[in-house]
Amino acid sequence: MIVCKVTFVNLRGEIVFDTLIRNKRNGKFFRGKVTGITQEAIDEAPDMEVVQKHIMTILESGVRIVGLNVKRSLSQLKLEHMNIIEASQIFHQIDPKTQIVK
Predict the structure, then answer these.
(1) What is the mean pLDDT of each run of 10 residues along the chain (102 residues)?
(2) Nearest partner of 84 among 59, 55, 49, 51, judged by Cα
(3) Residue 42 contacts by C-beta under 8 Å, 6 or more apart in sequence?
(4) CATH number of the domain at 5-90, out of 2.30.30.100, 3.30.70.890, 3.40.1170.60, 3.30.420.10?
């Protein structure tokens, strides 16, 4: 997996940080039909090191991150953060076959 976009929102749903990432490993971006992200947009995006530094300033402010697979996403960005809430542990999952909450 290669991260090509990072977005942080606050509790009110306002976008705090939103950027594409130009990664040296990206090469050609083949998922444009699915994501709507163009190769040109990736080519014009800041590189990974710039994005990492900006994210580190956000994380150092003591924020709590809530999301899906946050640890994995952060590891792809070569970052760590201890104050994480995994959203799949908060929201109940319903089995589509039985309609029973797991």
Answers:
(1) 80 91 67 81 89 91 86 88 82 69 60
(2) 59
(3) 4, 20, 21, 22, 26, 29
(4) 3.30.420.10
* pTM metric for this prediction: 0.71
Tokens of 31: 């998922």
pLDDT of residue 37: 85
Reduce the DSSP state of residue 85 to 3 states and report it. strand
CA distance 3 to 74: 9
pLDDT of residue 55: 92
User: Going by C-beta distance under 8 Å and a sequence separation of 6 or more, which residues neighbour residue 10?
Assistant: 16
Helix residue spans in 4-86 (DSSP H): 32-35, 39-44, 48-60, 70-76
